[in-house]
Design a protein that fits this description.
Layout: E1 12-15, H1 16-19, H2 37-47, E2 51-55, H3 56-59, H4 66-82, E3 89-91, H5 110-130, E4 134-138, E5 143-144, H6 152-173, E6 178-182, E7 191-192, H7 197-204, E8 213-215, H8 219-224, H9 229-238, E9 246-247, H10 266-278, E10 285-287, H11 297-323, H12 325-334, H13 342-347, H14 351-358, H15 364-368, H16 374-385
Parallel strand pairs: 1-2, 1-10, 2-3, 3-4, 4-6, 6-8, 9-10
Antiparallel strand pairs: 5-7
């Protein structure tokens, strides 16, 4: 049995804001001391993580002078080098400062939108300096509580204008960024624009440089809305738009809990790992989660270790599932094609294929009586997860 010790090749990453979370929530103050970015790099490296990701202000305070900014960044770069860590992804905090209380890219105010673009460009400069190649956009304040306050078509237009501007900036600077939109249905706004993976993909198709834009789906965000996260990720993968992914745990219908990966819905986490591994996804496995408010400093690193171990354990279970002859026999039977019709549908419309489909004849009633063995398949999956098989 594997020791489940993470390796750099696993590409596990954490945000500075994740293990650095101090346990504050809307009803209670912080319960842990500040963990500096340099210490985060050191401790995560010891645990086997690949790298760290950051918002601009996770590292550099919003009001830092140029000299202060350079000193902070240089110290951080030394830590990355000393501990063999990387920064694969960067993003901008466009949600905390009061200026963004009614949106950033979708604000009604052109000054706010322009400042949001300026702040993002400076953050892109920082990310590029640290080696990031993926840039994430989470529109946490892009939404409404009062629908009369915004014309939603204008808001989407404003959002598009900002994204197009920033795409051109990346191209002009030669940064080579892949932009990843991170959808979420609500919180902190009542209703957030581009709430789901599907809506984000539709928006991306309207951008001037849609080829450099994809998505960064998060387990908790789709789950809040009661959606199937694995299906959302599959859609992104199928169209080549899964540029990054946020892994955590979430109970359906709750606030954004950001639990440790696989803390909730083990079966959903299993099928997510299976999807990523079977598809050969070669991006980061990024944990966007927070230690529980009950934890002290030791608990923070228990949390980080648990995220990575759970992924590796589930990855091992995927191998058992894929090698189980009874399970695979059922699955293979579901796609059995004795009439060789799949190639007809794949090839598409033609005179010959029209004739094949048009002349199709079979006993519909009897065919509808066939059992598909889904009960057995689901039970066998449960047994794999419980360690009974393999």
């Amino acid at each position: 049995m594997s020791s489940y010790q993470p390796q750099k090749s696993d590409k596990f990453t954490f945000g500075l804001w994740t293990v650095g979370n101090r346990g504050r929530d809307p009803f209670g103050d912080s319960v842990r001391d500040v963990v500096t970015p340099v210490r985060i790099v050191k401790e995560l490296s010891k645990l086997g993580a690949y790298g760290v990701n950051l918002h601009d202000n996770d590292l550099v305070p919003i009001d830092a002078t140029p000299a202060e900014r350079d000193a902070i960044v240089n110290e951080f770069k030394r830590a990355l080098s000393d501990y063999g860590m990387t920064v694969p992804m960067a993003t901008t905090n466009l949600f905390f400062d009061p200026i963004f209380k009614d949106g950033a890219f979708s604000s009604n105010d052109p000054l706010v939108r322009s400042y949001a673009v300026q702040k993002t460009m400076r953050s892109m400069d920082l990310g590029a300096e640290l080696g990031a190649k993926v840039y994430v956009f989470w529109g946490g304040r892009e939404g409404t509580e009062v629908d009369a306050s915004k014309r939603p078509m204008d808001s989407i237009k404003y959002f598009r204008e900002c994204m197009d501007f920033l795409c051109e900036y990346s191209i002009d600077k030669g940064y080579g960024y892949k932009f990843a939109l991170e959808p979420k249905p609500n919180e902190p706004r009542s209703d957030i624009f581009l709430p789901t993976v599907g809506s984000a993909l539709a928006f991306i198709a309207t951008l001037k440089h849609s080829e450099m834009c994809g998505v960064n789906p998060e387990v908790a965000h789709e789950t809040i809305a009661g959606l199937n996260f694995v299906h959302a990720v599959a859609q992104a993968l199928e169209c080549g738009k899964l540029f990054h992914i946020d892994l955590n745990g979430q109970k359906m219908g709750r606030y954004d809990q950001d639990f440790r990966f696989a803390q909730e819905d083990l079966k959903g986490a299993f099928f997510l790992v299976k999807l990523l591994e079977d598809a050969g996804y070669d991006g980061m496995r990024h944990f966007d989660a927070h230690p529980l408010r009950t934890e002290d400093d030791n608990g923070v690193w228990d949390f980080a270790t648990g995220c990575m171990r759970s992924y590796l354990i589930l990855k091992e279970k995927v191998a058992v599932f894929n090698a189980d002859p009874e399970i695979q026999g059922i699955i293979n039977g579901l796609t059995n094609d004795p009439n060789n019709l799949a190639p007809v549908l794949t090839a598409g419309y033609s005179a010959a294929n029209l004739a094949t489909i048009d002349l199709l004849s079979f006993d519909r009633v009897e065919y509808g009586k066939r059992g598909l063995s889904y009960e057995k398949l689901d039970q066998l999956t449960t047994e794999v997860l419980l360690g009974i098989r393999g």
